[in-house]
Specification:
The chain is an alpha+beta fold. Helix content is 37%, strand content 18%. One of its GO terms (biological process) is establishment of mitotic spindle orientation. One of its GO terms (cellular component) is spindle.
Length: 690
């Protein structure tokens, strides 16, 4: 028998232990194991197990039990237990795609009993169908064999129970009989589910978009009707002919967490037709053509052959810097430093220990002046010296009247962290005769060098914001209300800050001044700002709102509090690419004098973009508190799409030309709601680069 052969193969490979002998035993197994599955294995480090080998053996035993429990939970249709096991263990730990002794996988049982919720949970975790079912006939034969053998076993046990006198052995046979009766009903239900199922309907909302000049992206939804069988995979086909004769390529999508697929390696300027079909255990359903019917791989830059704005800029700046350093190589200011080592050999741990040694040159009490501090943090904890203070070094004993300008200069220096020694050497010769501004900046370089040597920060830090992490300018003071966390074994101390109400909520509007004003912000607020400005946008095409405010010495830009490194924005769609056809339509729309241009033809990429833009503009204007009737006076920036890498791009929405930048004393006709602030343009540009 085919099923018996499968059992022999499984037993020979010792891949699965036999299942429970009864449904009640099955229930007891996976329910009694619930407490064990919730064990946090890190607790074993506290002494519950003596050796690492014992812990590994125990975990392996738990994994074997968890696999058996998963099969039983699927058979008993316990969705909560299935989700709990999938969340706690990886697919590899659960042996999610290894058949049991009956040649079945958890997904096979779920789809043949038509349990859609469990089947979807398994599919999203990466479950597959059994490789034994290569055709409809093989699946039908396999299930029929399981039913026939279970029925035969039930008949044999029934005869034995009826003919034998009551005894302990008879009681065991009664338990076996109940288990096989339950399994017989399960197999009959699986067989009925398979026989009643039909192929699925076509997928819905099949949308085709241009992903790049050589790729297309297709997204789709599940069929409206799966015809009593869960869809387990989809097939995407593409062709240059609307009849799909011939089919140029196809791909199977079996990871169903996100129903989309990107077709790579296409020819730019060629029209491609795409269709998608769904599959269940009865086979492939009818295909559904995409909307629009075809798409042409392209990019908006192809309309005028424009190169990316930032192409080669980093290389050009590196080359310029190397030329400047070459000119200064034989400068007198570098002579005293030729014999100095080029790099420190100390490890980070040694540097940190040296930092917190009592002999470290850090200030304990501060008075009026300019100081440099460095913050190392993890979660809500900040590293402090053995004297319970954040390490601080003095820059100058006077308070600069040009603090903002010095601060903005410092942000530029933070981008050259590895060149601090060279910059300091270049200023050494002219220090005595230089202006007060240069003298202050030279002292800043000295303080940075001292901090680098003491803390072992010769390499550029991961985050180079001048006032947040790892270095900060401005006045520093002790902040009360800090709680202790246990000292570490190296003698370093972690201070845990108490909850903060949020840095932006204290003073809205002018973040640059708030960050530099003494007493306005505690370290929690600085860390909160750093974390918020480090968040990355999800991939997609965004609509940004550009609003500037000018002052005598700087220009500020309006940004959201929760994401201050990006303009005020809403997402238009998940596809960041703007095709050549879409860009040409946008430029044509921008050149039309009528306030409301005619809609593009239906079922085209331009029409989809038109509809998406309408929704995005309404959402953005509501977000920044601009009346919708004023939208007719706003414009789309049609000179270029702002690309930030390959995954994020922006279209800009501009106010009327007279209101793009508000001058000092000028009334702002559009006052945004709370939740926004203005950043100096230089600070915003640094955050944008991150």
């Amino acid at each position: 028998k085919m099923t018996q052969q499968m059992r022999d193969l499984q037993l020979a490979q010792a891949r699965k232990p036999p299942g429970p002998s009864s449904p009640n035993a099955a229930k007891r197994l996976y329910r009694n194991l619930s407490g064990k599955f919730r064990v946090n294995y890190t607790s074993f480090d506290e002494g519950s197990l003596a050796g690492r080998g014992d812990k590994d053996k125990l975990r392996k035993a738990y994994l074997i039990q968890s696999n058996a429990a998963l099969f039983e939970a699927v058979e008993l249709q316990d969705l909560d237990r299935v989700q709990e096991l999938l969340k706690q263990y990886s697919p590899e730990e659960l042996d999610l795609n290894t058949p049991n002794s009956e040649g079945l996988l958890p997904l096979d049982i779920a789809i043949m009993t038509n349990n859609a919720p469990i089947a979807r949970a398994l599919l999203q975790a990466g479950a597959k169908e059994s490789p034994h079912f290569v055709s409809l006939e093989s699946r039908s034969l396999h299930v029929s064999t399981l039913v026939r053998e279970a029925e035969q076993r039930v008949n044999e046990l029934t005869a034995q129970v009826v003919n034998e006198a009551p005894s302990a052995d008879c009681s065991d046979k009664e338990k076996q009989l109940k288990a096989w009766e339950w399994r017989y009903r399960l197999y009959k239900r699986m067989k009925a589910g398979f026989e009643h199922a039909r192929v699925p309907d076509a997928p819905t909302n099949v949308h085709l978009s241009v992903a790049s000049s050589s790729s297309l992206q297709v997204t789709f939804w599940e069929p409206l009707s799966v015809n009593s069988a869960v869809v387990t995979k989809y097939k995407v086909e593409w062709s240059c002919s609307s009849t799909f004769s011939p089919v140029l390529g196809e791909a199977v999508v079996d990871k169903l967490k996100n129903l989309n697929f990107t077709i790579q390696g296409l020819s730019s300027g060629t029209a491609y037709y795409v269709r998608v079909s769904a599959y269940n255990m009865k086979g492939w359903g009818p295909p559904q053509a995409s909307l629009p019917l075809f798409a042409i791989p392209s990019n908006w830059r192809e309309s005028d052959g424009r190169a990316p704005r930032r192409r080669g800029q980093a290389e050009a700046l590196d080359h310029l810097l190397s030329q400047v350093k070459t000119v200064h190589q034989h400068c007198v200011c570098h002579e005293p430093c030729k014999n100095q080592p080029q790099s420190r050999k100390h490890s980070v741990s040694k540097s940190l220990k040296h930092l917190f040694h009592p002999g470290s040159k850090f200030l304990k009490t501060l008075k009026r002046g300019l100081y440099l501090t460095a913050i190392f943090y993890k979660d809500d904890n900040i590293l402090v010296t053995h004297e319970d203070q954040i390490p601080v070094v003095e820059i100058d004993d006077t308070y600069s009247c040009l603090l903002m300008q010095d601060f903005l200069w410092f942000t530029k220096v933070s981008c050259m962290w590895e060149e601090i020694l060279w910059l300091r050497q270049c200023l050494t010769v002219s220090q005595s005769s230089c202006s007060c501004v240069l003298q202050t900046r030279f002292k800043m370089l000295l303080a940075i060098s001292q901090m680098q040597v003491t803390r072992g920060l010769a390499r550029q830090p991961a985050a180079c914001w001048g006032w947040v992490h790892p270095s900060s300018t401005g006045l520093c003071r002790e902040v009360p209300g800090w709680g202790w966390v246990h000292p570490s074994s190296t003698g370093l101390c972690w201070l845990c800050p108490l909850p903060s109400a949020g840095w932006a909520g204290r003073q809205e509007g002018r973040a640059g001044e708030v960050l530099l004003t003494p007493g306005c912000l505690c370290p929690q607020d600085k860390l909160a700002y750093h974390q918020q400005s480090s968040h990355a946008l999800c991939p997609g095409l965004y609509l940004g709102y550009l609003k500037l405010c000018s002052a005598v010495d700087q220009i500020r830009v309006l940004v959201p509090e929760q994401l201050p490194n990006v303009l005020c924005h809403v997402r238009i769609r998940s596809n960041p690419n703007v095709s050549r056809e879409e860009w040409e339509w946008l430029q044509k729309m921008a050149s039309v004098e009528e306030p409301t241009p005619a809609e593009p033809e239906a079922e085209t990429s331009q029409n989809h973009l038109f509809q998406e833009l309408q929704v995005a503009i309404k959402e953005l204007m509501t977000l920044v508190n601009i009346p919708l009737q004023e939208a007719k006076d706003f414009r789309l920036y049609s000179q270029e799409v702002l690309d930030f890498g390959d995954q994020v791009s922006f279209l800009l929405l501009l106010p009327p030309s007279d209101d793009v930048c508000t001058a000092p004393g000028q009334n702002n006709p559009y006052t945004p709601r709370s939740g926004f602030l203005t950043l100096p343009l230089q600070i915003f540009e640094l955050g944008e680069d991150r």
